Amino acid sequence: MSAETRDAGYDEFLDAIASDEGYYLACPEGHGSVPPTPRCPVCGEPDLSEEPLSTTGVLEDQTRIHVAASGFEGETPYVVGIAEFGPVTMTGRLRGGADADLDTGAAVVPSVELSDTTGSRMLVFRPSK
C-alpha cells in the first residue's frame, strides 16, 4: 500500500494489530474506541490515550453475507463477526474452520489479511488456539 493511499489512524491501527501490538483509544472515563477518532464516542472527551488491546476477544455475534457491498461481490458468501476485546467492540471478517462457523462466546484473536477481491487490508478474527 502506498503512502498516499493510507487512511491516517486506521492504517496505523492495522499495522499495530499485524505486529501483535494492537491498541485502542481510551478516555479518562474508561470508555474505549478503535482508531481513528478525535473524541470519545461515548462522552466526547478529546483527551485519548493509546492502551494495549487484549490479545484475545469474545465473539458476540456474526452474520453470513450473501449480497456484498460494491467491490466485494466476488468474496460472497463470507462471515462477519462482532467481537469484544475488553472495553472495545470491533467488527471483522471471521476466518478459520468452515470459514468461520464459530459459536457465540468463542475466543478469537485479531489479525490483518488482504481482501481476495480488492487486495486491501482488513481486520480478521480467527479462533484462538
Describe the structure.
The protein is mainly beta and 129 residues long. It has two domains: 1-53, no CATH class; 54-129. It has one helix and eight strands. It has one helix at residues 10-18, and strands at 23-26, 32-33, 49-52, 57-65, 78-85, 88-94, 107-114, 121-127. The strands form two sheets. A five-stranded mixed β-barrel has the order 4-5-6-8-7. The longest helix has 9 residues, at 10-18. The protein is globular, with a radius of gyration of 15 Å.
Strand content: 35-45%
Give the fraction of residues assigned to helices: under 10%
Q: What does the average pLDDT come to?
A: 89
- Quickly count the helices: 1
Shape from CA axes? globular
Characterize the biggest β-sheet. Answer: 5 strands, mixed, barrel
Regions with little confidence, pLDDT below 50 for 5+ residues: none
What is the terminal separation in angstroms?
30 Å
Instruction: Count structural domains.
Output: 2
Salient structural properties:
1 helix; mainly beta
Quick description:
The chain has 129 residues and is mainly beta.
Secondary structure layout:
Elements: H1 10-18, E1 23-26, E2 32-33, E3 49-52, E4 57-65, E5 78-85, E6 88-94, E7 107-114, E8 121-127
Parallel strand pairs: 6-8
Antiparallel strand pairs: 1-2, 1-3, 4-5, 4-7, 5-6, 7-8
